[in-house]
């Protein structure tokens, strides 16, 4: 595991190259008898076409798979149950990806939570790499398409530039050293959920999670990940609108007290966590 060159910050960031070949992976990370229980959370809205690709690619040995349905009008729920009868279905109370993920996280009963997308763009075969990074000492793991071994087939030039600009803004405001900001492949120990204190309802949830992890002083690891194209269905992301929501989320986090999430959980923030930049 190669450590990035960092300035002193209230969180630690490492990068892990992508070492899993397509169709293979260190499944023993999950299969070990003393391995922690892994909960996989999938937010889905009209993803009937994609689930036939996503669910069969989940590694064996996962404790539970939670599908959060956003009031789908197709056979998303029925298809999920047909493909995986043991899947746990949660119907989200509100609207938006953030609302769905928060509902899924709250329903998780494992030790580790991994969030993937329902459209097939985040490959479940990479899950063992995320779990391995957590077992190696990380508190929070985020996928990166822009470190060695990562990549994307689903990102336009405009979206890449937008992601870069927002990422640089986070670096200036929060002192982060992330190489990717708006990517939904993430994982964390469930015990750290209260420290993230998530509130976003839309796609900006991905940015909120990454910023809150840094502010809370978590040990963050970036895992190289390859983003594929959507397998089926219709994309719900609206680049301009959702990009604006991400920008507003970054600014909200800048004025939100850094220790607020810890105080809400009855904890005392570390001295340097109050001033992350």
Short description:
This protein is α/β, with parallel strands linked by helices and 277 residues long.
Tell me the layout of helices and strands:
Blueprint: E1 2-3, E2 12-16, H1 28-31, E3 38-44, H2 48-54, E4 64-69, H3 76-83, E5 88-91, H4 97-107, E6 112-117, H5 127-135, E7 140-144, E8 151-152, H6 157-174, E9 186-189, H7 193-196, H8 205-215, E10 219-224, E11 226-227, H9 239-255, H10 260-264
Keywords summarizing the entry:
single chain; 277 residues; alpha/beta; Spore Coat Polysaccharide Biosynthesis Protein SpsA, Chain A; nine-stranded mixed beta sheet; two-stranded parallel ribbon; 10 helices; disordered C terminus
